[in-house]
Amino acid sequence: MDSILIFGHKNPDTDSICSSISYSYLKNQLGIKALPGRLGDISKETEFVLKHFGVKKPKLIDTVSPEIRDLTHVERAAINVGDSLKSALDLMTKENFSSLPITNNEKSLVGMLHVSDIANTYLDLDYKDLFTKYSSTYENIQKLLDGDIISGEYPTGLIEGRLKAASEIDTVKKGDIVVTTTVFDGIDKAIGAGAKLIIVCSRDEDYISPRQGTDCTIMRVNSNLFKTLKLITQSITVASIIPNRKFYHFKEDEFLSEIKDLMKEADQSNFPVVGRDGKLYGTIRSKNLINFTRKEVILMDHNEHHQSVDGIKDAKILEVVDHHKFGNFETNEPLIIRAETVGCCCTIVYKLFKEEGITPPKEIAGLMASAILSDTLIFKSPTCTPQDIAAATELCEIAGVDHKKYGMEMLIAGTSLGNKSPMEIITMDSKTFNMAELDVAISQINTVDISGILKKQGELQKVMTQKLNENGYDLFILVITDIINSGSQILVVGDSANLVEGAFDIKLENNSAWLDGVLSRKKQIVPSLMSASQSI
Hints:
Elements: E1 4-10, H1 14-29, E2 34-39, H2 44-52, E3 59-60, E4 79-80, H3 85-95, E5 99-103, E6 109-114, H4 115-124, H5 130-133, H6 138-145, E7 148-151, E8 163-165, E9 177-181, H7 187-192, E10 197-201, E11 217-221, H8 225-233, E12 250-251, H9 256-265, E13 271-274, E14 280-284, E15 296-300, E16 316-322, E17 336-339, H10 345-355, H11 362-375, H12 386-399, H13 403-414, H14 422-427, E18 430-435, E19 438-447, H15 450-454, H16 457-471, E20 475-482, E21 487-493, H17 498-504, E22 512-516, H18 521-533
Parallel strand pairs: 1-2, 1-15, 2-3, 4-5, 8-9, 9-10, 10-11, 12-13, 15-16, 16-17, 19-20
Antiparallel strand pairs: 5-6, 7-11, 13-14, 18-19, 20-21, 21-22
Helix pairs in contact: 1-10, 1-11, 2-13, 10-11, 11-12, 11-13, 17-18
C-alpha cells in the first residue's frame, strides 16, 4: 500500500513545510506509513530552518491525479516471442482480447500482435516451406502434439530443417522433420536419409518398434496425418510474424487525464503499459479508466481546493489540520478535521504529539518551534495566542534554541530578497480569496528593508498586473511586512483598488499605502477586505 501523502498549500511557507514534516513523523511513529510533500519551492526562511536542524526538504508533489498504476484492474496477459501462434490465439480467446503485447525473454515490450495477424498468416501457410519462411522450435511442436517418445532423445531449440510428409520420403535430407503413418512404411528410409525427428501418426493399439543406434528421434502422436500437419504449422513462433506497425503504449506513471482522449481517438483498443523497470506492466482498455485507487492525502495548513495540489478532487482526503477559515470545502466521504483558532498549524500538531504521549526529537521540535515563531512574528502578530506561546516555549527548550535570538535570525534570513526576481517575490507566499464575487490575490513577504523593496515598485506592479490579467483577478495586493517596525506597506493593482481604501480607511498614493500595526493577512487584512466587500 502506498504511503499517505501529507502536504501544505501551494507557495509553501515555513508552517506549511514544517507541519507536513512533523505530522508525517508522528504518523510513522504511530505505525502509519506517511510521506511529507511540498507544493512548490521553499522560501529562504524555510531553507534556513531545515539547514539549521539538519532536515531534508520534502519531495515536490506536482499532482495527485490518478496514474495508470492506480487502476484497480490491469490485464496482465502477454505473449512471448517464443510462443506458438496457437498458444497466442488460445490466450487471446481466453482473455477475450483482440490483441495482446509481445515481450522478449526479459519481459520487455517488443510489439503488439492482433488476431488478424494470426489469421492472415494462417491463410498464407504452406507446410513445404514452413521452417524456411518462418521459425519454430522443437518445444512448440512437442507441446502442441503432446506425443510419446518411442526412441531417441527429443531435440530442443530452433528448427533448421524442412517439414516432409510421408509421400516425400524420397526427398528427405539431413535435419528434416518427417510426418508419416504406421500404414506407410518409411521410418527406416527417413532415418537413413538423416531425418532428425520422425512423427508417426497412429492409433493407441498400433505398435511402433524403437530404433536403436540412431540420432533420429521417433515420436508417436494419436492423430491423423492431416490434423498433425495442421498443428505443426501452428507451432511457428510469434517472433516470425511480429508486425512492423506503430502502436501506442504508455508508462505506468502516466496520468489518466492525459491518456483518456488519446485512447478514444486511437485506432487500437488495447494499450500496453511499461513499468518503471522497463518491463511490461500490463495492458489497459478505455473501460479500465473508470475504476482507480485514489491517493490518500492529509491537508496541512489549508483546506480550500484552489490552494491545494492539482488533482485534489481525485484524491481521498483523510484529514485536515488547519488554523484558517473553511471555504468551499467538501468531500465525498467523512474525514477527520482538526481546526483551531491558533496562530500556527504546528501549534495544533504539537498538541497531537502530546495527545499521543510522544515527545518529538530535537530536530522535529525545532521545526515546529520555527513555524510558530514565523507565523506569529515572534509572538508580535495579532494571530498569536497563549497556546502558540506555550507550545513554542516548550519546543524551543526541546530544540535547545532561544526563541528571541533564533527567531530573529530566522526572520532576517527569510527577508533576504536580493536574488529574487519581481515575479518570484510576488509568488513566494500568495493566496487567492473570493470576496463578494471578486477574486482577490494577496501576497505577503516579510522584510527588514521596505525601502529597498520599494525601489522595485515599478517592476513589482508590472508583474502583479501580468498575474492579474493571466488569472482573471479583480485585485492583486502585495503586503510587505516590516518585522522590526510592526507594520506593512501595501502595493495594489486592479480596478477594485477602492475596496482596499474602504477596508483600511486610507488613500492610496501611487498605488501604495502604509498600514500601521497590520502584520497578519489572515486576521487583519482578509477580514477587513471581506467586511468592506459586503458594501460594494
